[in-house]
From TrEMBL:
Family annotation (Pfam families): Alpha-mann_mid, Glyco_hydro_38C, Laman-like_dom
Domain of life (superkingdom): Eukaryota
PANTHER family, A to Z: ALPHA-MANNOSIDASE, ALPHA-MANNOSIDASE 2
GO molecular function: carbohydrate binding; mannosyl-oligosaccharide 1,3-1,6-alpha-mannosidase activity; metal ion binding
One GO cellular component term: Golgi membrane
Listed cofactors: Zn(2+)
Protein name per the record: mannosyl-oligosaccharide 1,3-1,6-alpha-mannosidase
Source organism per UniProt: Mustela putorius furo (European domestic ferret)
EC number: 3.2.1.114
One of the protein's GO biological processes: N-glycan processing
Protein's UniProt keywords contain Nucleus: no
Catalysed reactions listed for this entry: N(4)-{beta-D-GlcNAc-(1->2)-alpha-D-Man-(1->3)-[alpha-D-Man-(1->3)-[alpha-D-Man-(1->6)]-alpha-D-Man-(1->6)]-beta-D-Man-(1->4)-beta-D-GlcNAc-(1->4)-beta-D-GlcNAc}-L-asparaginyl-[protein] + 2 H2O = 2 alpha-D-mannopyranose + an N(4)-{beta-D-GlcNAc-(1->2)-alpha-D-Man-(1->3)-[alpha-D-Man-(1->6)]-beta-D-Man-(1->4)-beta-D-GlcNAc-(1->4)-beta-D-GlcNAc}-L-asparaginyl-[protein]
Purpose: Catalyzes the first committed step in the biosynthesis of complex N-glycans. It controls conversion of high mannose to complex N-glycans; the final hydrolytic step in the N-glycan maturation pathway.
Length: 627
């Protein structure tokens, strides 16, 4: 939830500043007099509070954890509203009509969460012959091709671009349980290309002329009673391999629905990449595992199931996936059939529920044929990579390290990266393995001051991407150095994983609402290696409201240029860290841009308006900007 709030806060800050500038230009009193800025400030504070060392680690008492969760949840709800208000102002054809709309029935985010401890659910859009707007927002500074999925009430949905051109859609079943499909909801997915930091407008309606590509299903070790409009095949035999493929990669799965092999389409090479689950227990000695300590009873025991699990395979126009239903984990592996960055890697989603277990920890292990020996790499706070050595002379728990956003193993020819949307503990106990601990349930206190065990487990969603890359020219001496960098594709995949595109829909069709086709604030994508950390409105010195200035925070990432980024779907280039200020925005003119200290408290003595930004690799710079 912390990452989700972080992603929403960044999007809200950026859209709010653009909307504020438009509101000032067109003198829109309703937006200018709103309390949005106070709400943004409160959200920053709640997110900041959660960075406390007992909050992000989960080493706080149950009621304190609930309080943190409630604060995050409250801010998330408010940020969704701000994103909706700001986006509406930016894409309204007639900006002055903003004052006349009442706000409960306009743009609404499509993910709903009922409480701080529940998983987000997609809202079902009730369709009619009256078209309603669907707005997609890209929070990244790169031009982006993504698949957008929404739930609709009718199987005859039709999506058109703002100019009225119909868009190809994939229609999939919405599953109420593992083997029953909803008769009132359908999932439609379509491809969007959105400008950097931009918004794109589509319309959606019910129409007899709609022509969706229906997904096809194959069910192993189980069956579905009511198939609805979908073509579903039951398979009893276990010797048939399950295959998923796109233009980059082909995946082979075993009879239990777990991935076993990745085949690179470019050179046809087969790589063993096996996904398995395992359990750790806790020691029988007096001191046992708790919130702080990991004291396992030896190596992990494999996850055993008596009968083969129910496996659901879906083949669709834009994505295909394999979902396998184990008792404690619903494990889904999805492959996007698109040319962009999202098609390069494999998406893995685990919904974990160990609330009935005692003193057990569940882990996911990826075993590959990569000869990584005893070295692996984890990131420090998403900024830099630290090499790790697995030492056999140390106890098992001493070889587990934190992973914030990624971990990888490599040999002379390949690198296997696990990118993560949440912080977890990771280890590589044998050559070619990456193991992640996904959830722990421990019944006793471990005498470190918390005075309780870890028993407030929830159903948790874990999201990962697995990326297999070819390496070229490797000098083995360099391998021993204490620095290592992700590839550009890896950096951007990690960003896309943590900052997905947002979809908003018009709650109730408003016939008078006229929207532009898109909002595209930047002239082009920023260079591949430059990340816009934030563009946040600075507080005014007088009344605690907004001022006219914003903080532009840029981070130039260090990347390993020995990985080819040819034909990988990257839509940007690198410029040695140079950006021309006048070539940055398309709809706004930069009136001033002054370098500042990171905290914005000080400006260097020779600070003046600059026309070119120069960043060194691995550096973060802050500027005061006025549009």
């Amino acid at each position: 939830m912390d990452r989700i709030l972080e992603s929403h806060l960044r999007a809200a800050e950026i859209l709010y500043y653009f909307a504020l500038k438009q509101a000032q230009k067109y003198k829109i009193s309703k937006f200018l007099s709103s309390s949005h800025y106070m709400t943004l400030t409160e959200a920053r504070r709640n997110l900041g509070l959660f960075q406390h060392h007992d909050a992000i680690t989960g080493t706080a008492k149950d009621w304190v954890v609930v309080d943190y969760g409630t604060r995050l949840f409250h801010s998330l709800t408010n940020l969704k509203k701000i994103i909706g208000y700001s986006a509406l102002l930016l894409i309204l054809k007639d900006k002055n009509s903003y004052n006349s709309y009442s706000f409960d029935n306009l743009l609404d985010m499509d993910l709903k969460q009922n409480s701080q401890s529940s998983l987000p659910q997609k809202t079902i859009i009730t369709l009619s012959a009256e078209p309603r707007y669907l707005v997609v927002c890209n929070p990244s500074e790169q031009d982006r091709i993504s698949v957008v999925s929404v739930y609709v009430s009718s199987p005859t949905a039709k999506v058109s671009s703002a100019s009225g051109k119909p868009v190809e859609i994939q229609m999939s079943a919405v599953w109420n349980t593992a083997s029953t499909i909803s008769q009132t909801a359908y999932e439609i997915s379509f491809l969007v290309q959105i400008p950097p930091l931009g918004l794109k407008v589509y319309t959606i309606l019910e129409s007899a002329s709609s022509d969706p590509h229906l997904a096809e299903y194959v069910l192993h070790n189980g069956n579905v009673k009511d198939k609805g409009i979908f073509n579903m095949k039951n398979v009893k035999s276990t010797d048939e391999n399950i295959i998923l493929e796109n233009s980059f990669v082909k995946l082979r799965f075993g009879p239990s629905g777990l991935m076993e092999e990745m085949i690179n389409k470019e050179d046809g090479k087969r790589h063993e990449v096996k996904v398995q689950f395992s359990w750790y227990g806790t020691t029988s000695k007096k001191d046992k595992s708790g919130a702080y300590l990991f004291l396992p009873d030896g190596e992990a025991k494999p996850y055993v199931y008596t009968a083969l699990p129910f496996v659901r395979v879906q083949h669709g126009r834009f994505y295909s996936d394999v979902t396998c239903f184990l008792e404690h984990v619903t494990h889904r592996v999805r492959l996007y059939n698109i040319q962009g960055i999202d098609g390069q890697s494999v998406e893995v989603s685990n919904i974990v529920d160990i609330r009935k277990e005692h003193n057990r920890e569940i882990a996911m292990r990826i075993s590959s044929s990569i000869n990584s020996q005893n070295r692996f790499y984890t990131d420090l706070n998403g900024y830099q990579i630290q090499p790790r050595m697995t030492m056999s002379k140390l106890p098992l728990q001493a070889n587990v390290y934190p992973m914030t956003t990624m971990a990888y193993i490599q040999d002379a020819k390949h690198r296997l990266t696990l990118l993560s949307a949440q912080s977890l503990g990771v280890s590589s106990l044998k050559s070619g393995q990456i193991e992640v601990i996904m959830d722990r349930r421990l019944m006793q206190d471990d005498n470190r001051g918390l005075e309780q065990g870890v028993h407030d487990n929830k159903v948790t969603a874990n999201l990962f991407r697995i990326l297999l890359e070819k390496r070229s020219v490797v000098n083995m001496e360099e391998e021993k150095k204490s620095v290592s960098y992700p590839s550009l594709v890896s950096h951007i995949t990690s960003f896309f994983l943590n900052h997905p595109v947002f979809t908003m829909t018009e709650k109730i069709p408003v016939p008078t609402l006229q929207l532009l086709g898109e909002f595209s604030p930047l002239l082009s994508s920023l260079p591949c290696d430059i990340h816009l950390v934030n563009l946040r409105t600075i507080q005014s010195k007088v009344d605690g409201k907004h001022s006219d200035e914003a903080a532009l925070i840029l981070h130039r990432k260090g990347f390993d240029c020995r990985f080819s980024s040819r034909d990988t779907g990257l839509l940007c280039s690198t410029t040695q860290g140079k950006i021309l200020v006048q070539k940055l925005f398309s709809m706004f003119t930069v009136t001033s841009l002054i370098p500042s200290s990171l905290s914005l408290m000080h400006s260097p003595p020779d600070a003046r308006n600059i026309s070119e930004i120069n960043l060194s690799p691995m550096e973060i710079s802050t500027f005061r900007i006025q549009l």
